[in-house]
Amino acid sequence: MQRLHISTSTREQLLDITREVAEAIAASEVAEGVAVVYCPHTTAGITINENADPDVARDLLETLRRLVPCDSGYRHCEGNSDAHVKATMVGSSATIPIENGHPLLGTWQGVYLTEFDGPRNRTVIVTVMGS
Amino acid sequence: MQRLHISTSTREQLLDITREVAEAIAASEVAEGVAVVYCPHTTAGITINENADPDVARDLLETLRRLVPCDSGYRHCEGNSDAHVKATMVGSSATIPIENGHPLLGTWQGVYLTEFDGPRNRTVIVTVMGS
Amino acid sequence: MQRLHISTSTREQLLDITREVAEAIAASEVAEGVAVVYCPHTTAGITINENADPDVARDLLETLRRLVPCDSGYRHCEGNSDAHVKATMVGSSATIPIENGHPLLGTWQGVYLTEFDGPRNRTVIVTVMGS
Asked: What's the fold here for domain B2-130?
C-alpha cells in the first residue's frame, strides 16, 4: 500500500495521477492483478477518462457544475454540498487491472483525482493485489 | 465473505453501515488488503460520503431527486425507473483499502447503503481480500 | 485475465455481458473471491442493473441523454464530450463477489457494457482474484 500526496490548486480540478499510480504498481512488484486507487476524502473522487485533450476534463467539470450547482438551497452549511454530491457521482475509487507489472489502461485513458472543494492537500491510497 | 442484512425504512435513505463493514473486516482476520462492499439489488447502491453532518445525506438524496425525478415519462412500468437510474449513478459497490485490520476510511468518511425504492429488506455482501 | 471482444451496434446501448463474465470466472477456476470487469475505453463504461425488463436500459440511456445532451456547447471538438461525461458518471468498472465459482449477482442483476459513442468494437477485461 502506498500513499500519494497531492496538492490541488483551484476549487475544481482534474489532476492526472497516472504516472504516480504506475510507479506505485511497479514498486509493489506485482505482475498480474489489480490496483485499487482510493480517495479518503468526501469532496473529491477518482475517475478514469481521456488523457489527450484537456478540454474533456473542462467539459466534465462544467457539466457537473451545471447539474449540481454550487448554490442550490442545500441544507449542509459548509458551502460545499455540491462537492459531496459530485464525489458520490464520480466515485471514491477506481480499480485497474495489472498485466506484466503495468496498469492495463486503454490508449486514451488516464487516472484522475477529481477535486471539487480545493485548493487542498489530498492523499490518494494505492493498494496493489495479485502476484 | 459475509452478508449483512439491513432493513430500510423509507423510499429513499442513506443508511450508515460503516460499523458492520468494519466488523466484517475484523472477522476476516485480513490485516492488509481491500474490502469490496457489494449491493446485489438494482434499486439501491453503495457510496462513501460524509459521516458527520446528516444534511449531506439529505442534500445528496434531494439533488438526485431533482436530476432524476420519480415521474418523468419512463417506459419501465413498475414506477421505480428513477431508482434504477440512481443506482447506476451511485454504483453497486465500494472498494476500501485495509490496513492493520481496519478499513482505511478518511476522517469524515462513512460507508452507506443508498436506498432508492424502499422500504425493503436488503442484503449487502462484504468480501475481504488480502493477507 | 481474460479479454472479451464486443461489437456495439448503435451510438448508445446497454449490452448484456453477464454470460461472458460468468464464463470468464468459470475459466479462472477461482471459487471464492471477486471479479473486476474493466472497460479500457473513455466513451463507454460498465454498470450492473436490471436484466429482466429492457425498458430499464432505455430509461437509463434516455435519462442520461436528458442530463448530458449530445450538443451542449462543449469545448472538446470531437463531438463526443457527452459520452466522456457519461462514462465517468457510470464508471469504468464493476467489482462482483464470487461464491462457489459463480458471480454473486442478485436475482435481477445483469452486467452491462454501456456504449455512449458507438457503434464500435470494444474490449472488456475480466480479472479474477481469489482462490
From this structure: Jelly Rolls (2.60.120)
